[in-house]
Amino acid sequence: MSRIDRRQLIAYGAAGAALAALPASDAAYAGIGSVPASTPIAAAAPITTAERLARMAKVQSLMQLAGIGALFVEAGSSLRYFTGINWWRSERLTAALIPAEGPLCVVTPFFEEPSIREMLAVPGDVRVWQEDESPHALVAGWLKERKLAGRPVAIEETVRHFAIDGLQRALPGVAVRSGAALVNACRMVKSPAEIALMQRASDITIAAYRATAPRIETGMSGPDIFAIMAAEITRFGGQTPSGGIQLNEGSALPHGSKERQLVRENSVILMDCGCTVDGYHADISRTLVHGSPNVSQRRLFDHVRLGQEAAMAAAQVGAPAGRVDDAVRAVYEPLGYGPGYKLPGLSHRTGHGIGMDVHEPVNLVHGEATALASGMCFSNEPGLYVPGSYGVRIEDCFYMTEAGPRWFSTPPKSLDEPFS
Fold first, then answer.
1. Chain-centre distance for alpha carbon 354
2. Rounded-to-integer distance, Cα 149 and Cα 97, Å
3. What digits encode the pLDDT tens for the residues 126-158?
4. 191-226 b/e (C-beta count within 10 Å ≥ 16 → b)
């Protein structure tokens, strides 16, 4: 598929306040994270219909400027973002068609219509197909009916091939474009309401960490510890607990090993966990030692914290996202790590975007030129890994304001206070 020029969309965004969706002022974010001492968990309201309508208006304005007739969005986080429909993917197509002008259309199986209508939070039509009918023909028919068949159709980037292939077969000659730039232009900059939901998810995750850590015992496995963590997340009101626990030598592998490890004296325990609130993610990593940390463990932990601080110092509005990753490696390489992504050292990017997906554009990685803007949200997780020994990762997420980055969760000061 040919792509909509990203620079062109940036130019469109600069053309006016409505299309640029300028980030809210710092005052709009002022109350987020400022919770009373009596409670560790912030309150947050669900996304309103008014906010979803504003999202629709923005993406439609961008589509008009790009000459796009409709945006095709399959079930997933983008469908929920624009329409409120929280649906899963199967072999049966459920998708939205967002036209450049006017109300959208949702295509879904006949027997799912009542559920879809319950969740649909914006004005729109619902078209259904029976089990012996083609959903692709239904999509093509709606495009023809709306006189959009002769204009390009933008495809949200996670739409599966069978849906694109079906559309092209049902509507030969249709011009298909990537819709990634359109969707990212909306989703990358979070509103105060979105950030409040992410703050609540973060507070729940931290509360669950604090409740879990004292219950870790010698002989436990990673899944044993995660079962406690997941139960605590649920108890505090978090949804969809996620993540995993890496122990001992497994902590040197960022996403773990198939080898079963157990907690023992002086074990390094790397916990990477999170949850959602109303579809918005928290992603927090903590590293602790079972017993008394030794000198080398403390040193590696302190070096990771230096990387986190370097990342925050570099994360300024207008700076290229890649500069954050470069700043961390500039600290690590004189300490003997790397160079670059080599081990022992930091073998992965410094961070990723986060929101309705735990990993979203853009990444804090070398070479990423996208400028940081107020309202963007990222993880800050410059771990250090020593193959065959252990690794340390501290991960806290932050959001950008005009005054600089602000933490969702406060990083620990030392291995003696891993949940400060």
1. 3
2. 12
3. 999 999 999 999 999 999 999 999 999 999 999
4. bbbbbbbbbbbbbbbbbbbebbbeebeeebebeebb
Closest residue by Cα to residue 355 from 293, 310, 404, 397: 397
How high is the pLDDT of residue 163?
A: 98
DSSP 17-36: HHHHTPPPPGGGGTTTT---
Amino acid at 200: R
Q: What are the boundaries of each domain within the chain?
A: 45-187, 192-407
Amino acid at 36: P
CB 81 within 8 A of CB 186: yes
CATH superfamily of 192-407: Creatinase/methionine aminopeptidase superfamily (3.90.230.10)
pLDDT score for 258: 79
The pair of structure tokens assigned to 175 is 């011009």
Chain centroid offset of residue 382 CA: 17
End-to-end CA distance of the chain: 48
Q: Superfamily assignment of 45-187 in CATH?
A: Creatinase/prolidase N-terminal domain (3.40.350.10)
CB hemisphere CA count around 284 (13 angstroms): 31
Q: Is residue 4's pLDDT more than 50? A: no
pLDDT at position 27:
66
Instruction: Give the CA distances from residue 152 to residues 10, 94, 175, 176, in Å, rounded to whole numbers and listed in that order.
Output: 20, 21, 5, 6
Indicate whether 310 pLDDT > 90: yes
